[in-house]
Amino acid sequence: MLEGPNLYFPRAAIKLTLDISGLAAVPEDTARRFAARIGLRNARPGAPDSGFRQRFALRAVGRLVRAITAESGATRLAVRVRPTSDPHRIVVAYPWVHRNRAQVMGTAIAEVLDAIPGGDTDRVVDEVAARVAAAEPGAKPHTLTPRIPVVAVTGTNGKTTTSRMIAHIARADGRHVGWSSTDGIYVDGELVEAGDYSGPSGAGRVLAQPGVQLAVTETARGGILLKGIGVARNDVSVVTNVTADHLGLHGIDTLEQLAEVKSVVPKITRRSGWAVLNGDDPRVLAMRAVIKAQPWVFSRDPDAPAIRVVLDDGGRATTVIDGWISVLAPNADPDPLVELVDVPMTLSGLSRFNVENALAAASAALAVGIPRDRVVEGLRTFEPGPEHNWGRLNIFSVPRTGGAATVIIDNAHNEASLESLTEVAAGLRAPGGRLLLGLGAVGDRTEELTEALGEIGARAADVVAIGHKKKYLRGRTEEELEELLRAGAARVGVTDVPAYPTEVDCLAALVGQSLPGDVIALMTHAEHHAVFAWLEEHGATVDSPDVLREKVRAARAQDSGAASAGT
């Protein structure tokens, strides 16, 4: 039951995943009789279990939905039918206005498919059409039409950080801001309800909070696929990127399919609003083809083709020119907002992902009408510590004999985010320092992705260990995850990869063997509170923007010296 805009329709819809094994296997004559009963003339079903039969099944099931609709006395119904990676499974979707009748229709379709091998479809179609006609209508969808501005953020990586930055900038403008995310519901920076609210219920809870003047909604793939989007429209949308994650779940097997899911968010942005798109990601930039809103792209490269194309179409762009976050408009000089070194989240430009998140947040804030000076203030004052960005690139100094090591706690969970984490860690190492990495994986990722995490981590780090996440095994065992991560590490020649039962145990082991100047990076999902408590108990302090700036400068000086020596 999709309660709002979704992958198939811009309104509430029913999604059916149907087993068509029976229809796929029946003789051609049986398939033709079924086609004739539902008004599908001149059908060519093809041989049983052939590719032609699968294509016939897609067309026939769509026609079956329309036939039952017509024979039950309902008005014309829109239908979407799609294949899946399994030739015996298809997806059918149709809009709904009344919950109970729409559900009765769904079971009726399945009942007809079950009857096809027995050849009794004439009677069954008559019976189910009568049942749909007699069904009580039931409740209507709960999709909300917002009365305040809504900024909706989606993407694979950076959703939470970008959402938090936008909310922080809006608060710098004095607005009362509600924000929904994977962490909970926040109002003016205070947690009012814990839990994962990146689905449709999150938007509803934010909009129900008294006094909220602006809603920022983090919109995840799972919520779009399983429940739909909880609001009928948004005023500004942001798509951060599309990278490999959650593939193989809910019928989404490719990056192109994942991008189509994410595109639902900008697709429902109102015509007078703005769709903020990552101009460096071709799958995101391609969403310009489906939006009604005005395009606003962001890119780290001021000469990116995406910027030129969007400006030529009258859109906007945000980029980096001479180290300044700058806004571009057609037939106008660039407007430099703030230097990257003065935006703490970018770590003096070291974190490429957070540079992009800052560009996206600045674009969205300006697009929703926040004044330029308030945007600049918000970017300057949003810091990478737990206070503002809990669990995302939180950086600490932990005492070691003769100095301190650096600890980075991050929610890295896929290839792109792990590469970003190790890039930041390498950029904070003191001269002669090492990178010690705490790897981890959740159980519902593919074997290929899990092995890739092991390979990426082992290639980048001097010391690698595994910290298990019992809460996120999701059908796998710890031994299976260890085997996959170690297999990936072995591809780059690393075979010594110890495992620890918890993230805290892994952190303790890595810090215990660290030396001054080392960087310990931990992929943290399950035990943020316990990890932060452990750090506090062992004298760790959050790095201020000034401390981070000095660490980055020291590491860059080391790299410059090494390059000069090599020359």
TrEMBL record:
Keyword presence, Ligase: yes
Alphabetized Gene3D superfamilies for the sequence: Mur ligase, C-terminal domain, Mur-like, catalytic domain
InterPro entries: Mur-like_cat_sf, Mur_ligase_C, Mur_ligase_C_dom_sf, Mur_ligase_cen
Domain Mur ligase C-terminal intervals: 399-523
GO molecular function: acid-amino acid ligase activity; ATP binding
UniProt domain Mur ligase central: residue ranges: 153-365
Recorded coiled-coil stretches: none
Record-linked Pfam families: Mur_ligase_C, Mur_ligase_M
Tree of life domain: Bacteria
Record's protein name: Mur ligase
Organism in which the protein naturally occurs: Nocardioides anomalus
